[in-house]
Specification:
Distance between the termini: 35 Å
Strand order of the largest sheet: 1-11-10-4-3-2
Number of helices: 3
Radius of gyration: 17 Å
Helix content: 10-25%
Order of helices and strands: HEHEEEEEEEEEEH
Shape: globular
Number of strands: 11
Strand content: 35-45%
Length: 168
């Protein structure tokens, strides 16, 4: 299934893709680019560049509009759709929960593992480049990429419109 999905996207070949001038990307803070058919968000935060798939792994929300906050010592982007927290550096999904067997229950941060595909950012002489991940395993954010991903995002948005959430 994954190989068929990747076929629709085109397999990343490890090439560097020019995404902009350093000063312009710093000023923009967040920049959207489509690289080899993959929608990527380039983020400049606290002096560093990060790149990840542009749509949240959970329900295809546009991460470009998410807040960046620190959780459990990790800088994370918070999906504006459902508040999922994703580490900028590794694409790790994190959440806070309590073990009800503990007395008293103490909230702790836990990892869901890597959920969001991240990409490598390099800067040379003021030019910024992204090298798409060549990791061959399925990562959840892959679902919302390409033409099939566009359909999945529209369906998720439609479902959200029909389902009110407690925190909205």
């Amino acid at each position: 299934m994954f190989q068929a999905f990747l076929k629709g996207l085109g397999k990343p070949n490890g090439e560097l893709h020019f995404v902009g001038k350093k000063d312009e990307l710093i000023e923009a803070k967040r920049t959207f680019r489509t690289l080899d058919g993959r929608d990527v968000l380039i983020i400049h935060h606290q002096g560093a560049f990060f790149a990840m798939d542009s749509y949240c792994y959970h329900s295809g929300g546009m991460l470009q509009n998410g807040d960046i906050e620190e959780f459990d010592g990790k800088m994370c982007i918070v999906c504006p759709r459902h508040k999922y927290k994703i580490s900028l550096a590794k694409g790790e999904g994190i959440y806070k929960a309590s073990d009800p067997r503990e007395k008293p229950p103490v909230p702790r941060w836990y990892s869901k593992g890597v959920k969001q595909r991240t990409h490598t950012v390099t800067e040379t002489n003021g030019d910024v480049y992204v090298r798409l991940s060549t990791e061959s395993c399925w990562i959840d954010s892959d679902y919302y990429q390409g033409e099939k991903g566009k359909i999945a995002r529209a369906k998720a948005e439609e479902d959200d419109a029909e389902t009110p959430y407690a925190d909205e």
